[in-house]
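dude i think i finally got it to work??
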Amino acid sequence: MLELAEELLRRVDAGIPFVAATVTSVHGSAPRRPGASLVVDSTGAVLGNVSGGCVDSAVHQASEEMLAGDHQPRTVTFGYDGDEASGVGLTCGGTIELILRHHDPRAEPTLGQALADATNDQPVAVATIVRGPDDHVGRYIVVRSGQPSVGSLGDPGLDQAVVLHAIAMLHAGKTGTVELGTADGYCQEPMTLLVESNSPAPRMLIFGAIDHAAALARIGKFLDYRVTVCDARATFATKSRFPDADEVVVDWPHRYLESQRVDGGTVICVLTHDPKFDVPVLAAALRLPVAYVGAMGSRRTHEDRLVRLRAAGVTDEELSRLHSPIGLDLGARTPQETALSIVAEIVAERYGGGGVPLRTAAAIHHDAASPGSRWPNLSLPHGAGIRS
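look at this
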């Protein structure tokens, strides 16, 4: 549903009721993934789709019936055989399950908050019970960045469990279902939770329009960063040289950085190894609440850079955040190998990895809530914690 946030927010602001049919699970081949929605509002307008066409008509009819009659949430399944969907199935041979929910904006202020956050590209998750006791199905909690969760499923313990699952999914940027069992005591019978996440891509800011930057932009996109390459030299900072970057900016690095919004998921890579560019942008970057700041150069360049940064007023505490020379020791030689060493260090910093071979590591997986986590400031409800 969050994929239609902007259009739905207009309906919420206007007080227009609507039914959202949202994919909760997919088995086999299917054109849309969990979180995809088809919406029908009380004016008859239709938004989105859940199948690319093959079952959308049936979902549209079911949504109109819900608008006109019983507003209770319910699930429907569409498969190739069509036994559970009145003969309507997916031509691709897969099976999808959807939940249909009626929303009245006048009675659901929390929904508007979630849609507004998603419209403004802020991290937000909507966690909905899609299977379980009838009095729980369709209830949801909204988890927002930097603020307490909103809404309740009717039980504080269950709320805590759901919020923790939603935060984990939001950290990972995932939309999908989570099974809630009875063993931990949060629920008396099994439930299925659908978490719809709007997790904006973290930013990778690359300063220095060199060959290494082109390789780093390519692998940064592969890792789902929104990549910007910035250089003051218009001759070098061109889109044709950096086709994988989301944007290529001609500006002085420090001036561009000072104009940008960054957060705890932003990574900054300074590749120019030219003091007139490096020192001003690093002095600015090391004072920002970002996940990673790295700078390219030899050890001699690094020592000279430290002297210049201290002269510019950068403190030793701020300098301790600087990864220079940038990257892990992989024995890299080419721009592509160097880019790999840089992102290896970024990933290790994000999750607390040691950069050692796994065969000698004490643990394979690390805590996702490390200082470099994409959204480190999500609020838990009072008293929430991980139960072991």
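The CA atoms of residues 19 and 162 lie 23 Å apart.
im so relieved honestly
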